[in-house]
Input
Amino acid sequence: MDPRRSGQDVLRCTLCEASETSRHCVVCHMHLCVDCIEKHLSDKTSFHNVIPFHEYLSTFQYPYCSHHPTKKCELLCEQCNIPICASCISCGQHLGHKALDILEELESKRKQIKKDLHELDKIIYPDYIDAVSSEHSQKANMEEKSEKLAEIVNNKERLGAMKLTALSRKCNPKLTI
Ligand SMILES: [Zn+2]
Ligand SMILES: [Zn+2]
Ligand SMILES: [Zn+2]
Ligand SMILES: [Zn+2]
Output
C-alpha cells in the first residue's frame, strides 16, 4: 500500500506518528493513539485534558465555503490553497487539483509552525542576538572607518581630476576645463 495514501485516510498519533488517533489532548492540541496516552499524561510539564477523538471531531468547526455559503469545506485545494466544499469539486473549478483533508492539513501546518518556532528559539534567535550585538559594537568602528575611506576617496578623486585636466591640456592646449 502507498504509505502516503494510507496517511490521508486516517489521522495519525502526533507522538508516535504511526498508530491511528483515538484520543485528543485539548490542552496540547495533540492526537494520541491508545499506546501513547499514558506516555503523554506522564509529561508533568503541562496540564492535560484528554478527550475521545470523535468528541474532538464533533467540536471541530469546518469553515464555510466562500462560493457556497451553505456548505462546509472538508477539503483544501493544494493548488489554490483555499478550503473547498463538495460543490466546488462537482462544479469542476478544481479539476485536476489535489484536494487535501483540511483537518490533516491544519495538523501538519500546526506541526510545521511548532517546528519553526522551536528552530527560531534554538538556532535563529541566538544567532540574531549575536549578530545584533556584534553589529552594535562594530558600528562605531565602522562609521569611523567609512569616514576615513570617504576622505581617501575624495582626495584620490581630486588628484585624479587634477591629473586629467593637466593631461587634457597637454594633448589639447586650447581646451579649457
Ligand atoms: Zn502514538
Ligand atoms: Zn496534553
Ligand atoms: Zn464550495
Ligand atoms: Zn483548486
User: Anything to note?
Assistant: Residues 62-97 form one domain. The chain is about 55% helix and 10% strand. Residues 13, 15-16, 19, 33, 35-36 surround zinc ion (ligand 1) (CB under 6 Å).
